[in-house]
From TrEMBL:
Name listed for the protein in its UniProt record: FAR1 domain-containing protein
GO biological process terms, semicolon-separated: L-valine catabolic process; thymine catabolic process
InterPro entries found in the cross-reference section: MeMal-semiAld_DH
The organism of origin for this protein: Patellaria atrata CBS 101060
Domain of life: Eukaryota
GO molecular-function terms, A-Z: methylmalonate-semialdehyde dehydrogenase (acylating, NAD) activity
Region of interest: Disordered: 1-98, 250-301
Coiled coil: 316-350
Keyword list, A-Z: Coiled coil
Amino acid sequence: MSVEAIPTPQHNLSSHHNLDPDLGYPPFPTLQIPQLPPAPQLQLPPLPKIPQDVPPAQQPEQEQDTPQDADAADPVEESSYDPSEPIYSLPPPPQRAYPSRETLVEAAQTHAAEHGYAVSINNTWKSQQRVKVACVCYGKPKNTHKLSEETRVRKNRTSHKTGCRMWVEGRRREEDGLWWLTVKESRHNHPGREVGAFAVHRKSTWDSGRVKEVIDEEVARGTKAKKLLEILEEKCPGVRITKRDIYNQTAQARRGGLRQQTPKEERARANAQKRAASRAKNKQNAANSSTTDTASSAAEGGMSALDPELLAQCNTAVSNAELERLRAEIQRLQNENSRLSSENDRLFRTNQEYVQAEELRRHIQMVQSHSGHHMIS
């Protein structure tokens, strides 16, 4: 390595003190600076080119499209897994093109049913060109009341969400209009289940409409859920349904007014109404007969005044009882009117027959009289 000597200044004065030549400074020492070799040039490899036949879902995203759903931000991280979290490899749907978004989602659902899980649409972008289909266990249950593990009293009994990260994306290709399915995350954190464990798979066996018809018919008859389950298994072979599904369907049917009361229930309701009306009438009579005594006792502190709300209920019950009596009287009068109308019609027909008979008798007499005159002449 070669070393160059840097020349020192020839004057003995500092350039900063030229105004006073009497003040001198020692000369600068000679510095020895090593000469470094030139740095070698790095040869960078060329960047790989993206092939043109790769579907758009695998190329870098250019558009910043926003999802329509409120939970557009993924509730879990797809990039990293907790080492202590179990991983289950349930086969994801195949990556291929489909003619429409509905066909893509249906194919993903069919594939999931065959491998022990279910999927649903997680969100859809505003452009309607992309759709996110995730496992039904994707994410975690929503904590709407901001509860912690210490403050939570009831356990989760309805949600299937386990924090699973499995999801696929469907994207529409502009060149041919087909929808391409791309697997974004294939790992699950839960084992596979039977097909009937998910409601979406059970409901797929109800598409014929026969199941709902049978449920509506049996609900109208007041059939119990256990018996209804046996009837469905007999009338609809291959149907997947649970007691909870039947309870939900019967509740919807009752809210829709399809259920008819049984004769026993109607009699019980009528008897309850009669007893309530009788009690209300007795209370009203007692209240009317002892109004003065009640007021004086309340003034002395021996008895509290009657509750106005209770009095209003009693008055309503009495009014209802009186209304029922008037309705019964109206029905009796209508029946009597019908009977009198029938009797009037019978008398009218009898009168018509009598008039016709009288006219016939007179006609016979006239004929006989004319016949007698001809014989005499």
